[in-house]
Inverse folding.
């Protein structure tokens, strides 16, 4: 029987090579000076200093966090009622709706983002529609609004599915108990259903916020070449500027910031959970 | 609370579905446009499809995407399943460590995984191209397979394999004829996730490819600068293929159930 | 699940056969049958049938990869990516020669040098054309909508028109570090090859002012279709793209400031690590021949180095008759050719990535 444990050995080797080593390389690059050979490297903190002393870089990071936050907020506010609706439908309808929501996710993300370019471009349908509704004919493509739209479009299914899963797991007898105890529908929702669905909301937030912070092709396709988020800065460092050490340092900073924000969200979840205990 | 009409909910749901499908429908419509414009529909034509099929670059990118997705799915499903079984019999410390490591590609932003792998291939002087793209795809697919097989393993009786061997099965037989069939639902869902992840991937492929090897995403990314409705035609083709596959997967259990009923 | 697998396999087979059908032309007869040529070229830079015709003529297969900027190309090549042909610009060729990354051309295998116009031969980056054969050449100028922009403004302001708030939100900049700095330096009356820190700093501030006050869009090839549709009033542009735009939309004009501009040429070179230099020489010959050059230049709009093709296309009845962007102006003493200097490159590269970030933060 012990033999079976050996089945994991190839993957352990693989993971060390393909998962651990790349991360170590990024760290190595982030803390060394450019251009040195493999054997002799000189450690430095200059890349981090460069990032943190330049208000422009900090502003890009801040803007990436803000737009990711907005995306998450919109996904949550729009996604929750939709997930709630799906969870309350009967089995057959629910399966169909879930399929309808997952189907676009199967279609390549780039293709889906590209599809918006025609809709948003000057003289396109959406601009004309807004014109007819009396909003003038605002520029849509290559604006921050377009980037936000693209992000919500790409990431909201994750939010809906996560919240839906946690709503479906909800024990219906709890709702009946709450009604029996005299709570009206809103009270039942706010004091029973919503707190119990929080784990789904939190994992939804994780699945939306993290990719939104680091995304780089949505801003590039819908925001245009002059729209930079932190992901674009990293891409630019690697693909055009060639400063891999600095690029690695920025990625490390980005990961750290993400971990911190996720830690904060989990804390929030835990304090929400405590409230639920009190109930 | 039981059966309500829920007009607001229905309205919201309708809007959401409109939001999801509007760009896709729009893209399909304009793939049949007979001019180059992405904003004015001037007439029906299939010229962009002809152009697409004639463009070797586009067909090759579709081909690369599918081959890589199929290979990466097959390999990562096999390795992931085997590994999950192995881990379930390993010491706890080993299991915990490997699962932690396994979480990195899932939790890390894709761009970090991408530059890590790029640095790795460059450091090891591996020529970038089809092989590196495939290796990278396998690397980010396996964790999802392990993640979806592990819970099924936990639910399994740990003595199942022993019992099979007591009854005279060789270890391999007990593995593939007893354990694997029990894990099938987890393996299938792992394979499906792996397939989508690979089919969908842009960021990692973009950083690790070379030698002119492009997948569909890279193709769209590099071509998106000029107005080119052939991209719409290509996208429509992908939408149709994916819908067919998905419908097949979802109809399969229904059909099987009906057939069994007939028997 | 069997059905699903069968479906996937069927799918793969369909595509496989489609893929083979498409490339059957390449596996035919010819001197180089069965060989592969790897080309690393700019996006939107080859004629419609160039590759197919070359494949039919030689039996070889061409794999083309594309780049947006010289810098992007350099990074890939410097990291060991093996191509047989690169098409970088002048200053980048100079850099590649300095860093010993190119192999000298075997002139006995080239039969095209006599077909080319004198102006693109023997340029300072490669005085004897030991390493490079020109692919396209031209200038950098301003593409403008003649209905929205007055010629007087252009003549009075030159590149400084990109700071004129009359056109705020109505301009395109080009995402190229050297040409953006060229524009700024020329606007300030400096040489575009300056290595003077103060001048570079001034150019940087000029660009910062532009992105902070003018709401430009920073683009590459997007400019071609956008200007052909008249989306904006002004844009910094390569002459060849302007020629294409003007042939599509007669309302557009091309202007080159008196302060001078960049006389550039992009040329084919063979890197040291090329796997098939013989085929690469054949490709250079084909691209430079009348047939190849005609296909390239008439489709893309850039000026051909092939004398006959250039004269035919710009002459009576040619595709680019009367379009000033197609024929490079060669009489302004302020025009220059880029030179390469490692220190300056680093400074410009760093500053330009900050300009882009500032542009993004300003928006």
């Amino acid at each position: 029987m012990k033999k079976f444990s050996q089945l994991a050995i190839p993957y352990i080797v693989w993971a060390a090579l393909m998962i651990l080593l790349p991360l170590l390389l990024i760290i190595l690059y982030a803390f060394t000076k450019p251009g040195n050979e493999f054997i002799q490297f000189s450690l430095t903190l200059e890349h981090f200093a460069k990032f943190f002393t330049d208000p422009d870089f900090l502003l890009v990071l801040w803007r990436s966090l803000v737009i990711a936050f907005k995306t998450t907020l919109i996904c949550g506010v729009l996604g929750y009622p939709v997930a709630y609706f799906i969870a309350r439908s009967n089995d057959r309808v629910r399966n169909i709706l879930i399929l309808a929501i997952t189907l676009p996710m199967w279609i390549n993300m780039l293709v889906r983002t590209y599809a918006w370019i025609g809709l948003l471009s000057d003289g396109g349908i959406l601009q004309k529609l807004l014109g007819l509704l009396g909003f003038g004919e605002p520029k849509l493509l290559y604006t921050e609004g377009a980037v936000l739209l693209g992000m919500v479009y790409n990431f909201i299914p994750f939010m809906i599915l996560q919240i839906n899963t946690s709503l479906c797991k909800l024990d219906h007898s709890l709702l009946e108990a709450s009604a029996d105890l005299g709570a009206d529908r809103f009270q039942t929702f706010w004091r029973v259903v919503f707190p119990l669905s929080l784990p789904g909301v939190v994992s939804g937030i994780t699945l939306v916020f993290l990719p939104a912070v680091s995304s780089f092709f949505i801003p590039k396709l819908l925001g245009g070449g002059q729209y930079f988020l932190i992901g674009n800065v990293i891409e630019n460092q690697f693909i055009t500027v060639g400063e891999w050490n600095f690029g690695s340092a920025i990625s490390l900073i980005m990961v750290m910031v993400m971990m911190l924000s996720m830690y904060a969200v989990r804390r929030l979840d835990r304090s929400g959970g405590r409230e639920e205990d009190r109930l | 609370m039981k059966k309500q009409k829920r007009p607001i909910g229905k309205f919201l749901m309708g809007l959401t579905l409109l939001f999801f499908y509007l760009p896709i429908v729009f893209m399909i419509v304009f793939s049949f446009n007979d001019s180059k414009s992405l904003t004015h529909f001037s007439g029906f034509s299939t010229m962009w499809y002809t152009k697409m099929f004639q463009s070797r670059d586009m067909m090759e990118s579709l081909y690369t995407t599918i081959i890589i997705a199929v290979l990466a799915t097959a390999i990562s499903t096999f390795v992931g399943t085997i590994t999950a079984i192995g881990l379930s019999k390993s010491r706890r410390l080993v299991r915990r460590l490997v699962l932690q490591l396994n979480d990195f590609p899932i939790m890390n932003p894709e761009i970090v995984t991408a530059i890590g792998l790029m640095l790795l291939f460059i450091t090891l002087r591996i020529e970038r191209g089809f092989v590196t793209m495939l290796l990278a795809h396998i690397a980010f697919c396996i964790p999802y397979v392990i993640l979806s097989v592990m819970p099924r393993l936990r639910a399994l009786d740990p003595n199942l394999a022993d019992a099979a061997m007591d009854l005279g099965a060789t270890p391999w037989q007990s593995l593939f004829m007893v354990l694997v069939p029990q894990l099938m639902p987890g393996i299938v869902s792992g394979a499906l996730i792996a397939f989508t992840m690979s089919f969908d991937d842009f960021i990692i492929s973009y950083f690790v490819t070379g030698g002119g090897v492009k997948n569909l995403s890279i193709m769209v990314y590099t071509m998106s600068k000029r107005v080119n409705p052939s991209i719409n035609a290509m996208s429509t083709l992908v939408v149709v293929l994916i819908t067919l596959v998905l419908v097949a997967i979802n109809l399969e259990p229904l059909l099987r159930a009906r057939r069994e009923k007939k028997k | 699940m069997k059905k699903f697998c069968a479906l996937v396999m069927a799918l793969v087979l369909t595509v496989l056969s489609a893929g083979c059908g498409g490339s059957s032309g390449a596996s035919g007869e010819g001197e180089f049958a069965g060989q592969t040529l790897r080309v690393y070229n700019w996006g939107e830079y080859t004629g419609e049938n160039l590759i197919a015709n070359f494949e039919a003529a030689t039996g070889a297969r061409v794999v083309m990869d594309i780049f947006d900027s010289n810098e992007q190309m350099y990074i890939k090549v410097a990291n060991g990516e093996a191509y047989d042909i690169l098409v970088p610009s002048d200053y980048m060729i100079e850099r590649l020669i300095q860093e010993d990354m190119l192999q000298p051309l075997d002139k006995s295998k080239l039969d095209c040098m006599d077909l080319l116009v004198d102006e693109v031969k023997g340029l300072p980056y490669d005085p004897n054309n030991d390493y490079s054969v020109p692919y396209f050449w031209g200038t950098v100028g301003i593409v403008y909508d003649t209905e929205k922009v007055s010629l007087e403004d252009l003549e009075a302001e030159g590149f400084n028109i990109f700071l004129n708030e009359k056109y705020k939100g109505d301009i395109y900049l080009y995402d190229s570090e050297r040409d953006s700095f060229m524009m700024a330096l020329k606007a300030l009356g400096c040489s575009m090859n300056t290595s003077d820190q103060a001048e570079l700093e001034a150019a940087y501030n000029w660009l910062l002012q532009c992105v902070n006050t003018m709401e430009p869009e920073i683009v590459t090839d997007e400019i071609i279709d956008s200007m052909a549709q008249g989306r904006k009033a002004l844009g910094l542009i390569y002459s060849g793209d302007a020629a294409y735009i003007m042939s599509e939309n007669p309302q557009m004009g091309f202007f080159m400031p008196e302060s001078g501009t960049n006389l550039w040429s992009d040329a084919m070179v063979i890197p040291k690590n090329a796997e098939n230099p013989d085929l690469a020489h054949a490709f250079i010959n084909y691209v430079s021949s009348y047939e190849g050059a005609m296909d390239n230049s008439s489709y893309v709009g850039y000026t051909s180095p092939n004398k006959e093709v250039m004269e035919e296309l710009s002459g009576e009845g040619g595709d680019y008759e009367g379009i000033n962007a197609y024929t490079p102006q060669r009489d302004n003493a302020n025009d220059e050719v880029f030179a390469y200097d490692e220190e300056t490159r680093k400074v410009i590269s760093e500053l330009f990535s900050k300009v882009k970030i500032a542009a993004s933060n300003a928006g």
User: Anything to note?
Assistant: Chain B has a mean pLDDT of 90. Residues 31 and 232 of chain B are 5 Å apart (CA to CA). Residues 229-262 of chain B form the longest helix (34 residues). Chain B touches chain C at residues 53-54, 56-57, 59-60, 62-63, 66-67, 70, 122, 125, 127-128, 188, 210-212, 222, 225-227, 241, 244-245, 248-249, 252 (CB under 8 Å).
